[in-house]
């Protein structure tokens, strides 16, 4: 009887971290996103878009009630325009967003309206078991569209636009 009780106690000790879910063991998130250059000034990614290496992005978390800044981290995109920022701790009581800071490409440094930030949920209390959070792509645009963009934009026209 003693052996069975000891075995059950050992089993419960090893099982206890999983009883609350593995999320209780996690202490950080990885925010992953892309920064593009809108070469056609379309306001969104197109097949003609390129991706910006060395763009600076940041993640900020603000108190849901007061709006006070509670956490910030900044980083740069890699050669493919992808950023991976590590955010420490669970931010269930915060509103968190990734946002553009700057572009190293002076020819593509104007922020695309509405594509300068992406809200991200940074809590393990929402049913998402992964520590990786994907942010929407954010973008800068060129001052003038490249030649050939009219052809690219034709593929976005609806049948109604063609008549």
TrEMBL record:
Upper taxonomic lineage: Eukaryota, Viridiplantae, Streptophyta, Embryophyta, Tracheophyta
The entry sums up its family as follows: Belongs to the Ole e I family.
**Source species, please?**
Zostera marina (Eelgrass)
- Write the record's keywords in alphabetical order, separated by commas: Disulfide bond, Signal
Q: Where is the signal peptide?
A: 1-21
What is this protein's record name?
Pollen Ole e 1 allergen and extensin family protein
Q: Which InterPro entries match?
A: Pollen_Ole_e1_allergen (IPR006041)
């Amino acid at each position: 009887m003693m052996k069975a009780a000891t075995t059950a106690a050992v089993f419960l000790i090893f099982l206890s971290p999983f009883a609350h879910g593995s999320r209780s063991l996690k202490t950080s998130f990885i925010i992953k996103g892309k920064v593009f250059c809108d070469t056609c000034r379309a306001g969104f990614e197109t097949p003609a878009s390129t991706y910006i290496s060395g763009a600076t992005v940041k993640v900020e978390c603000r108190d849901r009630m007061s709006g006070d800044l509670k956490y910030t981290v900044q980083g740069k995109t890699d050669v493919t325009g992808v950023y991976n920022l590590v955010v420490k701790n669970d931010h269930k009581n915060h509103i968190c967003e990734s946002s553009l800071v700057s572009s190293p490409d002076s020819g593509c440094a104007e922020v695309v309206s509405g594509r300068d930030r992406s809200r991200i949920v940074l809590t393990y209390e929402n049913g998402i078991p992964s520590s990786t959070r994907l942010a929407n792509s954010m973008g800068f645009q060129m001052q003038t569209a490249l030649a050939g963009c009219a052809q690219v934009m034709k593929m976005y026209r609806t049948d109604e636009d063609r008549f």
